[in-house]
Amino acid sequence: MAILRTTNLTRRYGSRIGVDQVNLQVDAGQIFGFLGPNGAGKTTTIRLLMGFLKPDAGKAEIAGLDCWSRSAQVKRDIGYLPGDLRLYSWLTLRNALPIVSRVRGEDISARAGELAERFDLEPTLPVRKMSRGTRQKLGLVLAMAHRPKLLVLDEPTSGLDPLMQSRLADLVREAAAAGAAVFFSSHTLSEVDSLCDRVAIVRRGKVIVDETLDVLRHQAPRVVELQYADESQATSAALPEFLQLNERRGAVMHCELDGATPPLVAWASEQPLVDIRISRPDLEAVFHRLYHEPVEAI
């Protein structure tokens, strides 16, 4: 079931396009990565989803409700962590809980306590004494404590150390397994690779890619390192058409594999190789190509 859906969503700022005819769908139980360079339209999209901006054309819906005209009702089903999280200096987890519970119309204390333990968050520490990462943890606890149908997380690992990043990833997976949809905006490609089921890439306000990670991995090149016994063997080696030479260093050749690995293995078994190394599909190379190629060429 679709929890989040946008249809030709468009927003302009005068003559400048914020987002242009964006069509997205995030289903229950799905972790959806949202990527793009700075100024691409990610923040505008999120503000439209949250009902902070009115679209000039098209619409955004969450749980079947229009994000602008039914904004107050929509927000009951959302847990939101903004990319520029700002909190009152006097706020602590302990004094935030009754405030947020009243806003939510339910007591979130028990779940918030569980989340605080997993994030090692001190309940009585005020925001003015918190590091950036600790403020981020407080924002995450308050966003997730009411078990929302949709989690909108904008750069959620910013400021978190690797251990806390891992715990957040576990919590996001648990939320999705329980049926929540997760809209995960990030600049960190490794996070998206390890966490998300599907990814959309936005550039200049347009969605240029909306695919599962499996499809993108199939498109991603693998780097192959071939090590011969000596430099002369490497120099005289005739590479098959599915291997493109990127660099030769002495007896070692660094190549890019186009296609599946079985033909490579069959070819390599007949070569005088000392060693061969095959990397995982290089999603980063795919993302960088999509970021930098002219939009018309994609």
Q: Mind explaining what this structure looks like?
A:
A hairpin with a 2-residue loop joins strand 4 (57-62) and strand 5. The protein is elongated. The relative contact order is 0.14. It has helices spanning 42-49, 71-75, 93-104, 109-118, 132-144, 162-177, 189-195, 213-219, 231-236, 262-268, 283-292; strands spanning 2-13, 16-27, 31-35, 57-62, 65-66, 78-81, 150-154, 181-185, 198-203, 206-212, 222-228, 243-249, 252-257, 273-278. The strands form 3 sheets. The chain has a 6-stranded mixed beta sheet with strand order 6-7-8-3-9-10, sandwiched between helices. It has a 4-stranded antiparallel beta sheet with strand order 2-1-4-5. Strands 12-13-11-14 form a 4-stranded antiparallel beta sheet. It has 2 domains: 2-213, P-loop containing nucleotide triphosphate hydrolases (Rossmann fold, 3-Layer(aba) Sandwich); 221-280, Alpha-Beta Plaits (2-Layer Sandwich). It has 298 residues and is α/β, with parallel strands linked by helices. The two termini are 30 Å apart. The mean pLDDT is 91.
